[in-house]
Recover the amino acids of this structure.
Protein backbone atom coordinates (compact mmCIF):
# COMPACT_ATOMS: atom_id res chain seq x y z
CA UNK A 1 0.00 0.00 0.00
CA UNK A 2 1.40 3.35 -1.04
CA UNK A 3 1.14 6.16 1.47
CA UNK A 4 1.67 9.83 0.67
CA UNK A 5 2.75 11.84 3.73
CA UNK A 6 2.15 15.54 3.11
CA UNK A 7 3.77 18.13 5.37
CA UNK A 8 1.61 21.23 5.14
CA UNK A 9 3.91 23.52 7.10
CA UNK A 10 6.12 26.21 5.57
CA UNK A 11 8.68 25.30 8.25
CA UNK A 12 9.34 22.02 6.40
CA UNK A 13 11.84 19.81 8.31
CA UNK A 14 11.67 21.89 11.50
CA UNK A 15 7.87 21.80 11.64
CA UNK A 16 5.75 20.25 14.37
CA UNK A 17 3.73 18.75 11.49
CA UNK A 18 6.86 16.84 10.47
CA UNK A 19 7.11 15.42 14.00
CA UNK A 20 3.46 14.35 13.80
CA UNK A 21 4.07 12.64 10.45
CA UNK A 22 7.15 10.89 11.84
CA UNK A 23 5.06 9.70 14.79
CA UNK A 24 2.42 8.32 12.44
CA UNK A 25 5.04 6.58 10.31
CA UNK A 26 6.49 5.01 13.43
CA UNK A 27 3.06 3.68 14.40
CA UNK A 28 2.28 2.38 10.91
CA UNK A 29 5.60 0.54 10.55
CA UNK A 30 7.07 -1.17 7.52
CA UNK A 31 3.89 -2.49 5.92
CA UNK A 32 3.59 0.64 3.75
CA UNK A 33 5.57 2.22 0.96
CA UNK A 34 6.07 5.84 1.98
CA UNK A 35 6.48 8.94 -0.12
CA UNK A 36 6.99 12.30 1.59
CA UNK A 37 6.20 15.69 0.08
CA UNK A 38 6.40 19.28 1.25
CA UNK A 39 3.29 21.28 0.40
CA UNK A 40 5.33 24.46 0.87
CA UNK A 41 6.31 23.99 -2.78
CA UNK A 42 2.72 25.02 -3.56
CA UNK A 43 2.55 22.59 -6.48
CA UNK A 44 1.57 18.91 -6.51
CA UNK A 45 3.15 16.57 -9.04
CA UNK A 46 1.71 13.72 -11.10
CA UNK A 47 3.64 11.31 -8.85
CA UNK A 48 1.55 12.53 -5.91
CA UNK A 49 -1.49 10.84 -7.47
CA UNK A 50 0.26 7.50 -7.19
CA UNK A 51 -0.83 6.76 -3.62
CA UNK A 52 -3.52 4.60 -2.01
CA UNK A 53 -3.84 6.82 1.04
CA UNK A 54 -2.83 10.38 1.97
CA UNK A 55 -1.91 11.57 5.44
CA UNK A 56 -1.83 15.35 5.66
CA UNK A 57 -0.38 17.10 8.70
CA UNK A 58 -0.49 20.88 8.88
CA UNK A 59 -0.42 23.81 11.28
CA UNK A 60 -3.24 26.29 11.63
CA UNK A 61 -2.36 29.68 10.13
CA UNK A 62 -4.88 32.39 10.96
CA UNK A 63 -7.71 29.90 11.43
CA UNK A 64 -7.10 27.80 8.33
CA UNK A 65 -4.49 26.39 5.95
CA UNK A 66 -1.30 28.23 5.04
CA UNK A 67 -1.54 29.79 1.56
CA UNK A 68 1.04 27.41 0.07
CA UNK A 69 -0.80 24.33 1.30
CA UNK A 70 -3.98 25.72 -0.22
CA UNK A 71 -2.16 26.19 -3.55
CA UNK A 72 -0.85 22.62 -3.32
CA UNK A 73 -4.37 21.26 -2.78
CA UNK A 74 -5.69 23.27 -5.74
CA UNK A 75 -2.95 21.92 -8.00
CA UNK A 76 -3.57 18.36 -6.74
CA UNK A 77 -7.27 18.76 -7.56
CA UNK A 78 -6.40 19.92 -11.10
CA UNK A 79 -4.22 16.85 -11.61
CA UNK A 80 -6.89 14.55 -10.17
CA UNK A 81 -9.57 16.03 -12.44
CA UNK A 82 -7.32 15.73 -15.48
CA UNK A 83 -6.59 12.10 -14.61
CA UNK A 84 -10.31 11.38 -14.16
CA UNK A 85 -11.13 13.08 -17.48
CA UNK A 86 -8.54 10.99 -19.30
CA UNK A 87 -10.04 7.81 -17.86
CA UNK A 88 -6.71 6.66 -16.44
CA UNK A 89 -6.33 4.51 -13.35
CA UNK A 90 -4.34 7.22 -11.58
CA UNK A 91 -7.49 9.25 -10.76
CA UNK A 92 -7.97 9.18 -6.95
CA UNK A 93 -11.72 8.67 -7.40
CA UNK A 94 -11.14 5.42 -9.32
CA UNK A 95 -8.69 4.12 -6.73
CA UNK A 96 -10.82 5.13 -3.73
CA UNK A 97 -7.85 7.00 -2.24
CA UNK A 98 -8.47 7.93 1.41
CA UNK A 99 -7.19 10.93 3.37
CA UNK A 100 -6.72 11.58 7.07
CA UNK A 101 -5.74 15.07 8.22
CA UNK A 102 -3.97 16.02 11.45
CA UNK A 103 -4.08 19.74 12.17
CA UNK A 104 -2.33 21.43 15.06
CA UNK A 105 -2.71 24.93 16.40
CA UNK A 106 -0.98 27.04 19.02
CA UNK A 107 -4.09 27.72 21.11
CA UNK A 108 -5.28 25.40 23.84
CA UNK A 109 -8.41 24.09 22.17
CA UNK A 110 -7.98 21.45 19.48
CA UNK A 111 -11.50 22.32 18.30
CA UNK A 112 -10.14 25.60 16.89
CA UNK A 113 -8.96 23.46 13.94
CA UNK A 114 -12.56 22.74 12.95
CA UNK A 115 -12.86 25.14 9.98
CA UNK A 116 -9.46 24.06 8.64
CA UNK A 117 -10.49 20.40 8.75
CA UNK A 118 -13.78 21.27 7.04
CA UNK A 119 -11.74 22.90 4.24
CA UNK A 120 -9.73 19.68 3.80
CA UNK A 121 -12.97 17.62 3.78
CA UNK A 122 -14.34 19.96 1.07
CA UNK A 123 -11.10 19.52 -0.92
CA UNK A 124 -11.56 15.72 -0.72
CA UNK A 125 -15.08 16.04 -2.11
CA UNK A 126 -13.79 18.08 -5.08
CA UNK A 127 -10.76 15.85 -5.77
CA UNK A 128 -12.62 12.55 -5.55
CA UNK A 129 -10.85 11.47 -2.37
CA UNK A 130 -12.54 9.58 0.47
CA UNK A 131 -12.46 11.79 3.59
CA UNK A 132 -11.47 9.55 6.48
CA UNK A 133 -11.69 12.23 9.15
CA UNK A 134 -9.61 14.81 10.90
CA UNK A 135 -7.74 15.19 14.15
CA UNK A 136 -7.37 18.64 15.64
CA UNK A 137 -4.61 19.11 18.19
CA UNK A 138 -4.38 22.18 20.42
CA UNK A 139 -1.26 23.24 22.38
CA UNK A 140 0.62 22.49 19.13
CA UNK A 141 3.84 24.32 20.04
CA UNK A 142 4.37 21.68 22.73
CA UNK A 143 4.75 18.95 20.10
CA UNK A 144 8.36 19.95 19.45
CA UNK A 145 9.07 20.80 23.08
CA UNK A 146 7.98 17.31 24.17
CA UNK A 147 9.55 15.41 21.29
CA UNK A 148 11.90 13.45 23.56
CA UNK A 149 9.21 12.72 26.19
CA UNK A 150 7.80 9.15 26.05
CA UNK A 151 4.43 8.83 24.27
CA UNK A 152 2.85 7.39 27.41
CA UNK A 153 3.79 10.31 29.70
CA UNK A 154 0.65 11.89 31.16
CA UNK A 155 1.25 15.28 29.54
CA UNK A 156 1.63 13.69 26.12
CA UNK A 157 -0.96 10.92 26.39
CA UNK A 158 -4.03 12.69 24.87
CA UNK A 159 -2.05 13.63 21.74
CA UNK A 160 -0.34 10.22 21.53
CA UNK A 161 -3.76 8.56 21.72
CA UNK A 162 -5.05 10.80 18.91
CA UNK A 163 -2.09 9.77 16.75
CA UNK A 164 -2.81 6.09 17.56
CA UNK A 165 -6.37 6.55 16.30
CA UNK A 166 -5.21 8.49 13.21
CA UNK A 167 -2.81 5.67 12.34
CA UNK A 168 -5.58 3.11 12.83
CA UNK A 169 -7.73 4.97 10.27
CA UNK A 170 -5.09 4.29 7.61
CA UNK A 171 -5.25 0.54 8.16
CA UNK A 172 -9.00 0.21 8.73
CA UNK A 173 -11.50 -0.34 5.93
CA UNK A 174 -13.41 2.83 5.05
CA UNK A 175 -16.68 3.06 7.00
CA UNK A 176 -19.97 3.80 5.24
CA UNK A 177 -19.97 7.37 6.62
CA UNK A 178 -17.06 9.71 7.22
CA UNK A 179 -16.07 9.61 10.89
CA UNK A 180 -16.42 12.70 13.07
CA UNK A 181 -13.35 14.80 13.75
CA UNK A 182 -11.57 14.29 17.06
CA UNK A 183 -9.98 17.05 19.12
CA UNK A 184 -7.29 16.88 21.79
CA UNK A 185 -4.68 18.94 23.66
CA UNK A 186 -1.67 18.08 25.75
CA UNK A 187 -2.46 17.08 29.31
CA UNK A 188 -2.20 20.29 31.27
CA UNK A 189 -4.84 22.77 32.48
CA UNK A 190 -5.83 25.81 30.39
CA UNK A 191 -4.28 28.35 32.80
CA UNK A 192 -1.05 26.37 33.10
CA UNK A 193 -0.71 26.27 29.32
CA UNK A 194 -1.49 30.00 29.00
CA UNK A 195 1.20 30.84 31.56
CA UNK A 196 3.73 28.43 30.08
CA UNK A 197 3.17 29.75 26.56
CA UNK A 198 3.37 33.42 27.57
CA UNK A 199 6.63 32.78 29.43
CA UNK A 200 7.94 30.79 26.43
CA UNK A 201 7.48 33.79 24.11
CA UNK A 202 9.08 36.17 26.60
CA UNK A 203 12.06 33.84 26.92
CA UNK A 204 12.37 33.36 23.14
CA UNK A 205 12.33 37.11 22.54
CA UNK A 206 14.76 37.73 25.42
CA UNK A 207 17.20 35.26 23.88
CA UNK A 208 17.19 37.45 20.76
CA UNK A 209 17.80 40.59 22.79
CA UNK A 210 14.18 41.77 22.46
CA UNK A 211 12.65 43.01 25.70
CA UNK A 212 9.03 43.47 26.76
CA UNK A 213 8.75 47.07 25.56
CA UNK A 214 9.99 46.14 22.09
CA UNK A 215 7.74 43.08 21.93
CA UNK A 216 4.57 45.12 22.42
CA UNK A 217 5.62 48.02 20.16
CA UNK A 218 3.11 49.46 17.68
CA UNK A 219 5.25 50.37 14.68
CA UNK A 220 2.21 51.46 12.65
CA UNK A 221 1.13 54.02 15.21
CA UNK A 222 -1.42 53.63 17.95
CA UNK A 223 -4.83 53.43 16.33
CA UNK B 1 -14.90 55.64 8.84
CA UNK B 2 -11.87 54.38 6.92
CA UNK B 3 -12.49 51.36 4.68
CA UNK B 4 -9.87 49.06 3.15
CA UNK B 5 -10.90 46.89 0.21
CA UNK B 6 -8.42 44.03 -0.32
CA UNK B 7 -9.05 41.83 -3.35
CA UNK B 8 -7.31 38.71 -4.61
CA UNK B 9 -6.58 39.51 -8.25
CA UNK B 10 -7.26 41.94 -11.07
CA UNK B 11 -10.57 40.92 -12.64
CA UNK B 12 -13.75 42.71 -13.80
CA UNK B 13 -15.89 41.50 -10.90
CA UNK B 14 -13.29 42.82 -8.44
CA UNK B 15 -13.63 46.25 -10.06
CA UNK B 16 -17.43 45.98 -10.02
CA UNK B 17 -17.42 45.07 -6.32
CA UNK B 18 -15.01 47.94 -5.61
CA UNK B 19 -17.23 50.39 -7.54
CA UNK B 20 -20.20 49.28 -5.45
CA UNK B 21 -18.21 49.70 -2.24
CA UNK B 22 -16.95 53.12 -3.40
CA UNK B 23 -20.56 54.21 -3.99
CA UNK B 24 -21.59 52.85 -0.58
CA UNK B 25 -18.65 54.61 1.10
CA UNK B 26 -19.41 57.93 -0.63
CA UNK B 27 -23.02 57.80 0.50
CA UNK B 28 -21.86 57.24 4.07
CA UNK B 29 -19.09 59.87 3.90
CA UNK B 30 -16.34 57.26 4.38
CA UNK B 31 -12.76 57.15 3.07
CA UNK B 32 -11.77 54.14 0.97
CA UNK B 33 -8.42 52.57 0.08
CA UNK B 34 -8.03 49.48 -2.05
CA UNK B 35 -5.22 47.09 -2.93
CA UNK B 36 -4.67 43.74 -4.57
CA UNK B 37 -3.16 40.92 -2.52
CA UNK B 38 -1.74 39.37 -5.67
CA UNK B 39 2.02 38.79 -5.58
CA UNK B 40 2.47 39.04 -1.80
CA UNK B 41 5.04 36.47 -0.71
CA UNK B 42 3.79 33.68 1.57
CA UNK B 43 4.46 33.75 5.32
CA UNK B 44 7.62 31.89 6.35
CA UNK B 45 6.22 30.78 9.69
CA UNK B 46 9.37 32.11 11.36
CA UNK B 47 7.68 34.19 14.13
CA UNK B 48 10.17 36.96 13.29
CA UNK B 49 7.27 39.44 13.45
CA UNK B 50 6.98 38.61 17.17
CA UNK B 51 10.58 37.90 18.11
CA UNK B 52 12.99 39.74 15.80
CA UNK B 53 11.20 42.82 14.47
CA UNK B 54 8.05 42.93 16.64
CA UNK B 55 5.06 44.24 14.72
CA UNK B 56 6.73 44.03 11.30
CA UNK B 57 7.08 41.13 8.87
CA UNK B 58 10.70 40.20 8.19
CA UNK B 59 10.16 39.39 4.48
CA UNK B 60 11.69 42.20 2.42
CA UNK B 61 10.83 43.49 -1.01
CA UNK B 62 7.09 43.33 -1.55
CA UNK B 63 4.03 45.50 -0.84
CA UNK B 64 3.40 44.08 2.64
CA UNK B 65 4.16 47.39 4.40
CA UNK B 66 1.50 49.26 2.41
CA UNK B 67 -1.12 46.51 2.62
CA UNK B 68 -0.59 45.91 6.33
CA UNK B 69 -0.59 49.65 7.06
CA UNK B 70 -3.95 50.06 5.32
CA UNK B 71 -5.28 47.08 7.25
CA UNK B 72 -4.23 48.44 10.64
CA UNK B 73 -5.49 51.98 9.98
CA UNK B 74 -8.90 50.86 8.69
CA UNK B 75 -12.13 50.74 10.65
CA UNK B 76 -13.58 48.24 8.21
CA UNK B 77 -11.67 45.75 6.04
CA UNK B 78 -13.53 44.05 3.20
CA UNK B 79 -11.57 41.10 1.82
CA UNK B 80 -12.80 39.88 -1.53
CA UNK B 81 -11.91 36.79 -3.50
CA UNK B 82 -12.77 33.29 -4.49
CA UNK B 83 -13.35 30.82 -1.69
CA UNK B 84 -11.85 27.48 -2.76
CA UNK B 85 -13.08 24.68 -0.47
CA UNK B 86 -14.55 27.40 1.76
CA UNK B 87 -11.13 28.90 2.45
CA UNK B 88 -9.90 32.35 1.50
CA UNK B 89 -8.15 32.48 -1.89
CA UNK B 90 -4.38 31.80 -1.84
CA UNK B 91 -3.59 35.49 -2.46
CA UNK B 92 -5.90 36.73 0.32
CA UNK B 93 -4.54 33.97 2.56
CA UNK B 94 -0.95 35.10 1.96
CA UNK B 95 -1.98 38.59 3.12
CA UNK B 96 -3.82 37.14 6.13
CA UNK B 97 -0.96 34.83 7.13
CA UNK B 98 1.22 37.94 7.24
CA UNK B 99 -1.36 39.76 9.38
CA UNK B 100 0.14 37.92 12.39
CA UNK B 101 2.15 41.03 13.51
CA UNK B 102 -1.21 42.66 14.28
CA UNK B 103 -1.34 40.23 17.20
CA UNK B 104 0.96 39.75 20.17
CA UNK B 105 2.25 36.25 20.91
CA UNK B 106 0.58 36.34 24.32
CA UNK B 107 -2.67 34.52 25.02
CA UNK B 108 -5.90 35.47 26.76
CA UNK B 109 -9.42 34.07 27.05
CA UNK B 110 -11.79 35.75 24.60
CA UNK B 111 -15.33 34.60 23.69
CA UNK B 112 -14.76 31.46 25.72
CA UNK B 113 -11.57 30.24 24.09
CA UNK B 114 -7.88 31.03 23.80
CA UNK B 115 -6.83 33.87 21.48
CA UNK B 116 -3.91 36.21 21.03
CA UNK B 117 -3.90 39.66 22.57
CA UNK B 118 -4.28 42.29 19.80
CA UNK B 119 -1.20 44.48 19.32
CA UNK B 120 -3.25 47.59 18.56
CA UNK B 121 -5.89 49.13 20.80
CA UNK B 122 -8.43 49.53 18.00
CA UNK B 123 -9.00 46.62 15.67
CA UNK B 124 -10.84 46.88 12.36
CA UNK B 125 -14.08 45.16 11.60
CA UNK B 126 -13.34 42.40 9.04
CA UNK B 127 -15.76 41.11 6.43
CA UNK B 128 -15.16 38.46 3.78
CA UNK B 129 -16.88 38.91 0.44
CA UNK B 130 -17.06 35.91 -1.93
CA UNK B 131 -16.35 36.65 -5.58
CA UNK B 132 -16.35 34.53 -8.70
CA UNK B 133 -19.04 32.16 -9.82
CA UNK B 134 -20.46 29.60 -7.45
CA UNK B 135 -19.77 26.08 -8.67
CA UNK B 136 -23.54 25.59 -8.49
CA UNK B 137 -23.15 21.95 -7.55
CA UNK B 138 -23.98 20.18 -4.31
CA UNK B 139 -20.58 21.02 -2.84
CA UNK B 140 -20.97 24.80 -2.97
CA UNK B 141 -23.38 24.91 -0.05
CA UNK B 142 -20.94 23.12 2.28
CA UNK B 143 -18.09 25.38 1.13
CA UNK B 144 -20.13 28.52 1.77
CA UNK B 145 -21.06 27.28 5.26
CA UNK B 146 -17.39 26.51 5.93
CA UNK B 147 -16.39 29.97 4.74
CA UNK B 148 -18.83 31.75 7.04
CA UNK B 149 -17.53 29.78 10.02
CA UNK B 150 -13.98 30.60 8.96
CA UNK B 151 -14.78 34.31 8.60
CA UNK B 152 -16.32 34.25 12.08
CA UNK B 153 -13.26 32.51 13.53
CA UNK B 154 -11.12 35.26 12.00
CA UNK B 155 -13.36 37.87 13.66
CA UNK B 156 -12.75 36.11 16.99
CA UNK B 157 -8.99 36.29 16.38
CA UNK B 158 -9.26 39.95 15.43
CA UNK B 159 -11.54 40.67 18.41
CA UNK B 160 -14.08 42.35 16.15
CA UNK B 161 -17.84 41.70 15.78
CA UNK B 162 -18.56 38.44 13.99
CA UNK B 163 -19.66 38.48 10.36
CA UNK B 164 -23.39 37.77 10.31
CA UNK B 165 -23.95 36.06 6.99
CA UNK B 166 -22.24 34.76 3.89
CA UNK B 167 -22.48 37.01 0.84
CA UNK B 168 -21.45 36.31 -2.74
CA UNK B 169 -21.27 39.29 -5.12
CA UNK B 170 -23.07 38.51 -8.37
CA UNK B 171 -22.84 41.97 -9.92
CA UNK B 172 -25.68 43.53 -7.94
CA UNK B 173 -24.28 46.66 -6.26
CA UNK B 174 -27.51 47.31 -4.34
CA UNK B 175 -27.39 43.84 -2.80
CA UNK B 176 -23.77 44.39 -1.80
CA UNK B 177 -24.63 47.75 -0.22
CA UNK B 178 -27.55 46.15 1.66
CA UNK B 179 -25.22 43.46 3.01
CA UNK B 180 -22.67 46.05 4.13
CA UNK B 181 -25.43 48.08 5.84
CA UNK B 182 -26.72 44.97 7.57
CA UNK B 183 -23.26 43.92 8.78
CA UNK B 184 -22.31 47.45 9.86
CA UNK B 185 -25.53 47.78 11.87
CA UNK B 186 -24.92 44.56 13.82
Amino acid sequence: MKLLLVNGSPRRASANSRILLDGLEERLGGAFEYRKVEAASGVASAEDLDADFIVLAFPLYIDCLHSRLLSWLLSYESLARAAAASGGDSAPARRRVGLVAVANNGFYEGAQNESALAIVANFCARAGIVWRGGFGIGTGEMIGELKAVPAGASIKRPVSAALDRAAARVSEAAPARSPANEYSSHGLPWRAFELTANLHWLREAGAKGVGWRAMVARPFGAP
Amino acid sequence: MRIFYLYDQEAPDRDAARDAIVAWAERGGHELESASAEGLAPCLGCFGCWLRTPGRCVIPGDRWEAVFGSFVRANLVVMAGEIPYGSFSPAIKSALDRWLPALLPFFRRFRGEMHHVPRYRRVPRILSLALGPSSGDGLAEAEEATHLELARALCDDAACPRQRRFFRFRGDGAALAAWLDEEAAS
Q: What stands out?
A: The two ends of chain A are 56 Å apart (CA to CA). Residues 136 and 183 of chain A are 5 Å apart (CA to CA). The mean pLDDT of chain A is 96. Chain A is about 40% helix and 15% strand.
